[in-house]
Amino acid sequence: MEERILNIVEKKLSTFRSNQIKATLNLLEDGNTVPFIARYRKERTHSLDEVQIREIQSVYHQTETLEKRKDDVLKNIEEQQKLTPELAQKIKDAEVLQTVEDLYLPFKQKRRTKATIAKEAGLEPLAAWVLSFPQGDLKLKLESGINVDKDVNTIDDVLAGVHEILAEAFSDQADIREWIRSYTKKNGFLKTDIKSKGKELDENEVYAIYYDFNEKVTKIASHQILAINRGEKEKILRVKVDVDEAGIERYLRFRLIGKHTGNAVEIVQNAYDDAYKRFIGPAIEREIRSELTEMGDAQAISVFGENLYHLLMQAPLKGKIVLGFDPAYRTGCKLAVIDANGKFLDKLVIYPHKPAPKEKRAQAKQQLKNFIEKYQVEMIAIGNGTASRESEEFVADLLKEIKRPVYYVIVNEAGASVYSASPEARAAFPELHVEERSAISIGRRLQDPLAELIKIDPQAVGVGQYQHDVAQKDLREQLDNVIETAVNQVGVNLNTASAELLTHISGLTKTTAKNIVNFREENGSYGSRKELKKVPRLGPKAFEQSIGFLRIVDGNDVLDNTGIHPESYGIAKILLKELKIDLSTIGQSATDQILKNVNIEQLSHKLEVGFETLKDIVEELQKPGRDLRDEMPAPLLRSDVLTMEDLKPGMKLQGTVRNVIDFGAFVDIGVKQDGLVHISKLKKGFVKKPSDVVSVGDIVTVWVDSVDSNRHRIQLTMIPQD
Fold first, then answer.
1. With contact defined as beta carbons under 8 Å apart, do 228 and 252 qualify?
2. CA nearest to 464, candidates 306, 229, 312
3. How many helices (H) and strands (E) does the chain have?
4. Helix axes 281-312, 174-187, angle to 10 degrees
5. DSSP state of 638
6. Is residue 667 helix, strand or coil?
7. CATH classification at residue 538
8. What gap in Å lies between CA 397 and CA 87, rounded to an integer?
9. Residues 573 and 655 grouped into a single domain
């Protein structure tokens, strides 16, 4: 860690204390993971969370990249023997990469331009002379630039060469570019219109609002940028950054001509006009479009990450026998029963929908009923894809005939087919067809969303906005971080976790995760966390980073079923001794009450233990085996079906938030089409962003605002109706 870079980072991150930044960077440099630092090194970082740790990490890397570029630029200019103390200071003081590149522009090796050719013809001194604004007739002096050997045959050729040299020089001036950039950003508009063949390509008028669109660069919304970019990519929209050029003309005249007069003024004016139109303007338009895209990408990635986190953290449906139901028409509905622990028990294919013959459709009802009774199914998870609507009606009708309570839940099946065709799914269920594996995946999604969804490419889970249009590397990094955060916050059962789930545990890799599973299969269940040390290729560092997030239920030591790190077992036992608590009573209500009344601050001084560490130990001892997700909203269970025709304005309903986007949230209210709650209808008063009000998986009360059956659109509101 460079001291120079550290000092810059500390200035940029003024909301953090210097010792927090240093401690975090030192811990990261020592090979500690973000989840491990956030959970087990709170005393060192003064309780920074994962978001804050990643921010410090990101700013350090960005600063490191910027400083390296500055060093390269300074070295290159110095090698050209053109580095002045003033220029060196400007480069060192630059706070963004764009400023460094602007300052470097005049010294960059360029391809052979018209200005280069003019300089080779010896016209550079004449260009400098013109810029001194000589008085009187310029003709005689300009004629001295004629050089037949260099193809400068006339005074017009001389003027053309001088023009090119001046235009390029003006374009290369960092302060001019910066002023025009700032002016354009502040006063510019992003304008779009439809291309001549645009309407043919946009049959459904998806981009209709952008056929004649005009919004200030400073005010345009992220989702608008991404929609416009997509429309442009699909050759439907024409896009440009528009700005009042009169202000730029005034600035350039003041900056380059000032109060000068004479015949040279026109030459200089033509040169800076051309510099702006040919070089500066287009370059700045590209920069602004690029910055807007980056802004749109960042927001879309952030929204996707937030949605994915809440999707992964949905409450599991524990201890229930579930039937996964993958709907279809012609090929039949694939059913799979999984036991309370997610183990696959049996499969069945039924044909309840047309074009199946009437006899088969009648038979399907009895088949499903027998299947439910045979395995004492308690919950049915119906995939929301093709034939979902008809399957829901079929199931709801059947459930009326079953005397005991059985419910169904519509499960978002996005990505299930992708996973079911993957090598991992084939290895797990080699004897099953793709659709049968999908039914298992749908059922397991209801039982344990986190364990099942991490097997799927996060882009396929259907909770994003323009996720295929944004910078894929940045998206992948963000989603990996989100998955890592969710998995480690929850922790995993070492004796049941799949290799896919273990891969996301702090300190583990695909190889070590697979080795953990192989060791378990060969030697039986793990009895204690210590046994993990026997796993091949799992070294001391990987053990240290991972072990606190791995749980052993019903193991040899109750502490192994908590988030207490083995490095703190000694402290935990001293604490229990101090409180006269027997380890065997952990989890009992009397013990919980004692722990609840502990004065942590007082005890931390007495035991000479960090306050945060002791606080976490006490919390874990109160709830061994606790699952954060149990505090999340449970799935909305249904036993009857609702149609779009049933919906009436003002009707009050309960629904599940399926997706949160920039302009609102989509809510599943039990009909085939999710309803939209616009940002303005999320609550009374101003809402900055929808995620401040709702999250994916939330159970919300909504009122029907309007229904458009022809366009299959439902508008909802969360503002209570009088």
1. no
2. 306
3. 31, 15
4. 60
5. B
6. strand
7. 1.10.150.310
8. 79
9. no
Radius of gyration of the CA atoms of the chain, in A: 33
Cβ-based burial of 266 (10 A; exposed 0-12, middle 13-18, buried ≥19): exposed
What is the rounded distance in angstroms from the CA atom of residue 190 to the CA atom of residue 285?
10
Nearest by Cα to 642 from 671, 675, 668, 674: 671
pLDDT at 62 over 90: yes
Contact 701, 652 (CB under 8 A): yes
Instruction: Give the range of the structural domain holding residue 569, as residue numbers without chain letter.
Output: 510-631
**For 91-95, 627-631, 664-668, which range has the lowest pLDDT when averaged over its residues?**
627-631
Q: Do residues 455 and 464 lie in contact, with contact meaning Cβ atoms separated by under 8 Å?
A: no
Contacts 24+ apart (CB under 8 A), 473-476: 474/297, 474/298, 474/301, 475/297, 475/301, 475/304
* 478, 305 contact by CB (below 8 A): yes
User: At a CB cut-off of 8 Å and minimum separation 6, what does 660 contact?
Assistant: 303, 306, 307, 463, 666, 690, 691, 694, 695, 696
Query: 598 with 687, same domain?
Result: no
Write out the two tokens for 636: 């909305």
**What is the number of other CB atoms lying within 10 angstroms of the CB of residue 518?**
13
Q: Is residue 316 part of a domain?
A: no
Exposure on the CB side of residue 390, measured as CA atoms within 13 A: 15
Q: Which two tokens stand for residue 432?
A: 């099953």
d(CA 46, CA 464): 34
At 534, is the pLDDT very low, low, confident or very high (cuts 50, 70, 90)? very high
- Can you read off the two tokens belonging to residue 416? 């299930």
Backbone phi and psi for residue 278, each to the nearest 5 degrees, phi listed first:
-95, -35
The count of domains in the chain is 5
Task: Give residues with Cβ within 8 angstroms of 332, minimum separation 6.
Answer: 349, 350, 351, 356
CA distances from 331 to 345, 370, 436, 467, 483 (A): 22, 21, 12, 31, 35
Q: Which of 72, 106, 140 finishes a domain?
A: 106
Q: What is the pTM of this model?
A: 0.87
CATH number of the CATH domain containing 351: 3.30.420.140
- Residues 476-499 have pLDDT tens digits of 999 999 999 999 999 999 999 999
Close Cβ partners of 521 (under 8 Å, ≥ 6 residues apart): none
Do residues 56 and 200 both lie within one domain?
no
Which pLDDT belongs to residue 465?
73
Regarding whether 371 and 222 lie in a shared domain, the answer is: no
| CA atoms in the 13 A half-sphere facing the CB of 600 | 13
User: What's the order of all strands across the beta sheet hosting 237-242?
Assistant: 212-216, 189-194, 237-242
Residues 175 and 41 both lie in one domain: no
Is residue 247, in this structure, part of any structural domain at all?
yes
Per the DSSP assignment, residues forming a β-bridge with 676 are 666, 715
Distance of CA 287 to the CA centre of its chain: 23
Among 106, 130, 148, identify where a domain stops.
106
Residue 138: partners with Cβ closer than 8 Å, 6 or more residues away: 130, 263, 264, 267
Provide the β-strand partners of residue 240: 191
Residue 283: φ, ψ to 5°? -65, -45
Q: What is the pLDDT of residue 99?
A: 96
pLDDT in the model for residue 72: 97
Comparing CA positions, the residue from 110, 5, 13, 11 lying closest to residue 54 is 13
The reported pLDDT for the residue numbered 318 is: 87
- Do 297 and 165 belong together in one domain? yes
How does residue 460 score in pLDDT terms, banded at 50, 70 and 90?
confident
Strands, E, within 542-697: which ranges? 550-551, 652-661, 664-668, 675-678
| Other C-beta atoms lying within 10 Å of the C-beta of residue 337 | 23
The number of residues making up the chain comes to 722
The tokens for 359 are 């006899």
